[in-house]
Amino acid sequence: MRFSFVALVLFVVAGQVFAQTTFSVLVGSNNALTFSPESVNEAKVGDIISFSFMSGSHSLTQSTFATPCQPFENGVDSGVQPVAASSSQIPQFSFQINNATRPLWFYCKTGTHCSQSGMVFAVNPTTEQPFADFKAAAVGGSGSSSASSASPTTSSSPSTASSSSTSSSTPSTSASGQSKGSSSVSPAGIAGIVVGIIGSILLLMVGLWLLRRHRIRAQRDLAAVEQQDFINGYAASLPTALDSKLREVTKARFSRTWSQYPSCYIISHSDS
Question: Are 31 and 56 a contacting pair, CB within 8 Å?
Fold first, then answer.
């Protein structure tokens, strides 16, 4: 029973560790004013969204569904990442999902990339707030792409969305040329994976130890039962004419001797 519980805990921990997913997004791929893909669906808590800036000067800036081209105050912002045409270095930016209960909305704050070209991105859009409506609102002029810090209205505010994603957002620029479409994992994600693996190994070791202990105890209990059954059978085979007290003394002495030389009594008793 104990081993089953440990195995269940181990399975849950390992599932959480290895279920983490990294979504790779290309920004400005093929010199286009787009995020590719434009949205990520079914992202879960702990998943990482990784961005590779391929060309031009672009940013990943958090906004809201109601105001696609205006920055959300204290939201995720990579800053503008310029990439020279002859550069072999690809700037990287990533953040981790800490709250997957609401959609997250983003845009490129460079010039008119959002308001004219609809350069926007979303995480977990819903049927009530579809990505197509978000992009249409951006091109339709729902807020300019200025870098003003005007906060969104309460009704459209993502509330916990900004704090859930900014706590682990870590921009990084690659030190050497990387292949296009490469993804990066934040230090927090790496640390979580290492801790999870170590914990899983420890739980496995504890489970194996408990299983071995259970087997040893079961073998001892079985040996004790077999010993008692043999002693009772031997005592029952003694002549019925013996005095009851003498029978008990004989049985007690036989029991003490059994623990030292059980095999000889088994042989002698079976021969008789």
Answer: yes
